[in-house]
Amino acid sequence: MTPDIEVSRDIAAAPSVVYAALTDIARMGEWSPENYHAEWNEGFDHAAVGAKFTGHNRHGDKEWTTEAEVVELVPDRRFFFDCDSRGFVFAKWGYAIEATEAGCRVTEYNQDLRPESALERSATISGVVDRLAHNRTGMEQTLERLAAALEAN
After folding, report:
1. How many helices (H) and strands (E) are present in the chain, helices listed first?
2. 56 CB contacts (<8 Å, ≥6 apart)?
């Protein structure tokens, strides 16, 4: 993946703890300002390459769902997934975890693959006009909230 955005944050927690939290997709709503809930699709109950899940998102009074598929998974190191609409992958997301002396450094990645022709419709659905700026801010908040939750334990 060649990300459009990447945001990193040091977290005072073991890589295994961070990985477990990130791959427990039902918890994503605890730290994401946009994704308020996610669940594994029928036939899947944990992170594995090929596993599919549905994300429920909100921005202001707009709500929408996205379908996602895990495309890369390395225990305690990497969790990457593609989001698609009707078979078209419109975004790639991922987390890389590197051990540090104090815990780990987590980097969140996002690549926007929407064609120019889809941007207006996307903004109508989500209420987000500048998706790159919005995602960067959301990613920073996500990692801050993730750190706060995991460092409190």
Report:
1. 4, 7
2. 35, 36, 37, 38, 63, 65
Q: What is the three-class DSSP state of 129?
A: coil
Placement of tokens 């750190």 in the chain? 147
Task: Check pLDDT > 90 for residue 31.
Answer: yes
CA–CA gap between residue 94 and residue 80 (Å, rounded) = 4
Q: Give the DSSP letter of residue 64.
A: E
Give me the domains of the chain, ranges plus CATH numbers: 5-151 (3.30.530.20)
Average pLDDT, the chain: 92
State mean pLDDT over 16-42. Answer: 97
Phi, psi angle pair for 39, to nearest 5°: -145, 150
Whether the pTM exceeds 0.85: the reply is yes
Q: Concatenated DSSP letters for 47-79? A: --TT-EEEEEEEETTEEEEEEEEEEEEETTTEE
